[in-house]
Amino acid sequence: MPLNQLNSTSFDEMIYNKGQACLVIFSRKTCHVCQKVVPVLEELQQKYEGKFAFSYVDSEENTALFQRFSLKGVPQILYFSEGEYRGKQTGLVDEELIEEKIATILEANPL
């Protein structure tokens, strides 16, 4: 299942207005490392459905959003919960590390 693609408006709505526990990967279609990470996230998304959201921002189409977080390079996975930034992971991230970060966020903010 493809990740939900966000733009500046939908990003603000999900992160700040809804305060949803989520991760957002900042990526590019032409990034070979991103093409390895995104399928892992798509697979994990099914496991956490209804508990944790997974979204995607194309850093080339949404440069202002990419720059808002002073990101350098892709892929960058940013984590949020209750409208707060909860950390990031960069590059080719192992599935276990992603799940550890998700577990930490869900434990700190149970549904």
TrEMBL record:
<dbReference type="InterPro" id="IPR013766">
    <property type="entry name" value="Thioredoxin_domain"/>
</dbReference>
<dbReference type="InterPro" id="IPR036249">
    <property type="entry name" value="Thioredoxin-like_sf"/>
</dbReference>
<protein>
    <submittedName>
        <fullName>Thioredoxin domain-containing protein</fullName>
    </submittedName>
</protein>
<comment type="similarity">
    <text>Belongs to the thioredoxin family.</text>
</comment>
<dbReference type="GO" id="GO:0015035">
    <property type="term" value="F:protein-disulfide reductase activity"/>
</dbReference>
<keyword id="KW-0676">Redox-active center</keyword>
<dbReference type="Pfam" id="PF00085">
    <property type="entry name" value="Thioredoxin"/>
</dbReference>
<dbReference type="GO" id="GO:0005737">
    <property type="term" value="C:cytoplasm"/>
</dbReference>
<feature type="domain" description="Thioredoxin">
    <location>
        <begin position="1"/>
        <end position="107"/>
    </location>
</feature>
